[in-house]
Specification:
With 354 residues, the chain is α/β, with parallel strands linked by helices. 38% of the residues lie in helices and 16% in strands. The protein is built from twelve helices and 13 strands. The protein has a seven-stranded mixed β-sheet with strand order 2-8-7-6-5-3-4, sandwiched between helices. A four-stranded antiparallel β-sheet has the order 9-10-13-12, covered by helices on one side. It has a two-stranded parallel sheet with strand order 1-11. The protein is globular.
Amino acid sequence: MASACSHGGIYSVDHRLVRVDCSSSVNPLGAPKKAITVIKNGASSLAPLYPDPECRDLKKSLARHLETDISRITVGNGAVEIIHWFAQAFAKRRVVIPAPTFCEYELASQRAGAHVMFVPLAPDFSLGASTVIDAAKGADAVFLCNPNNPTGLLATGEIKKIIKNADSSTRILLDECFIELADGTTDTLVKMAPDHDNLVVLRSLTKSHGLAGLRLGYSVSSPEVTEKLSAFRVPWNVNGLAQAAGVAAISDRAHLTKTVRFVKKEKTFLYNKIKKMRSFAPLASDANYFLVKLNGRNSTEFRDALLIKSGVLVRDCSTFTGMGSQHVRIAVKTHRENLILQKALERMDDGKAS
């Protein structure tokens, strides 16, 4: 029986209590205006129609954006759908997953009937290529996340080593769903996919373009792997409004550029504020979120207390395999929301609100 896989978001708790959601790491500036306009203008014409089951216009836009061939692109109802396709296609016996990381890799592999072998990250949460390469010998698949969730750390150099040294028969899913909002936005390894038939690079419009509610993810791989992934697709898996909004969002590069600058500034602001507090130890991050260690507090109890007292929701990280119960993850939000979070944490600092 597959284990449960917990996520953040307002529906992970009593949503009526949530004033500010810092548990979901989605673009703090929201969806691009172009995408919102397309949704509003297209609702009446697109809602009555079955969507294109092949997502042709969206794939064309993605191919231009990524400078790759359309035959290499798979589109899913969120990146999570593609993770499960990947597991169904390739996770037959044994998979390797560095931990802690996103729980859907584990869940998808278990549902596919594979044994999951976890490779612990170093105490500073860094990824060691050699340990993963050794563990992956004879494995069906390896799941990697860059920047990693929940740590927020990029490990591009180590991941390149893994890709180059892994057995050609071992499939690698590289989750880059947060890469476009990371400090090192040039660290994407999409360009490696054409030269490595065992590599699938996973991306998402959920986080980078603020389309979480529309569910839109995609991957880049060899045409052969694309066909194998698509074999598990149900008809019309991506709705028409999501496809149209995705095309519009991809075309609005200025929105993403603005967001990256904004996230970097606000992350620095939040990190410096939290670092001054006695009860919390933030971990420097490359992503649009970061871990905070709670000095002597249980993460689940802290999340619940913070929510009840201030209406601020943070991500309890105790549900991540190998994480323990002393960390929460905080997403960078708008400046107004970040100020609310700061004040809420200050009230909880040093046991003042316990």
